[in-house]
Amino acid sequence: MTTRRTFLHGAAAASLASVHPSFAAAPASRDKHPLIIDALGGIDNMNLPSVRRDDPAADFGIDARSLADAKASGLNAFNMTIGYVFGDADPYEKTLADIKSWNALIQRRSADLLLVRSVADIRRAQNENRIGVILGFQNASMMGKDARRVEVFAKGGVRVVQLTYNGPNQLGDGAMVPANKGLSPFGREVVAELNRNHMLVDLSHSGEQICLDAIGASTSPIIISHTGCRAIADLPRNKTDKELRLVAEKGGFVGIYFMPFLAMGRQPLAADLVAHIEHAIHICGEDHVGIGTDGTVTPIDDMKTYLKGLEDEVRQRRAAGISAPGERPDIVPFLPDLTGRDKFRKLADLLAKRGHSSSRIEKILGTNFLRVADGIWS
């Protein structure tokens, strides 16, 4: 079953080379661009049928167009959700199958993609005009009752593990569980194994208590790969200032998403994203904030058909009990004025116009994630 991210992201924006001249270079010179790392995202073509985007034989919806768009955007690496997230599949078997399929895909498309096991691989992808693929989970249900499975996943190339999705699992409660149970004894075992195997602990989608507990339990910095700030939009998928501050104090990273949860009761826009980034910087400091778009690059061609699919998806998620407040059929899960090949350039421009320095913007676009990952994956 697909994740929430397999929903759209479309429409193009303007070139912003005046703010970052290095962005003006052609794709062949991508090594000269500011480093861009999407802490949670994708590069599939959302115009393809969803069955193709779920099919390893169809390269999970990654086609020539979507690869060209991703490279033109300046993207150097992204955290790709694989494995079990929710649904009826066996979590462990589904996850093992996905690891095998993604490793095979990356090998098959090695001229364009590179499996990321270390920060050196991200730099290599940047220098070789490839895109680094960071394999990550958005649920830890596949651990079953055996925390030693972490080592199996690490050997398969997984580098990021999110402890919960919106609901509960054996580690603790996700953001939509009223009980807000914290990190279970088994959850502490898993966190310890993630630390031992040099994997990033991700607290996106988590309930507040498990987030606070995991920050304390981890001996390494943790990340929240894709979230917003609850002080701006009081929704469960966003994080409180307390959570954000503790992540930063631990030396970690917070990625802000391009999602409906950036605003209350309306379609969010690029200005809302900037507001969340600025609030996160105020709470965490500029060395701990970046982006985790929860989206892809290629724009949608047929918005009418897409919106019909979105209506069905929202209805299905609500029926399954995995929907979060802010998910609505009349609010698209992307930012309409910050999409397509130029979305990262446009974000850089918006931040520059707000007075943020080039060095800070480069931190937000990628080097903050790189620094935290380097300390864990080394």
UniProtKB/TrEMBL annotation:
GO BP, sorted A to Z: proteolysis
Name of this chain's protein: Membrane dipeptidase
GO molecular function: metallodipeptidase activity
Leader sequence segment: 1-24
InterPro entries per record: Metal_Hydrolase (IPR032466), Pept_M19 (IPR008257), TAT_signal (IPR006311)
Keyword Repeat in record: no
Origin species: Duganella sacchari
Domain of life: Bacteria
Keyword tags: Signal
Keyword flag Signal: yes
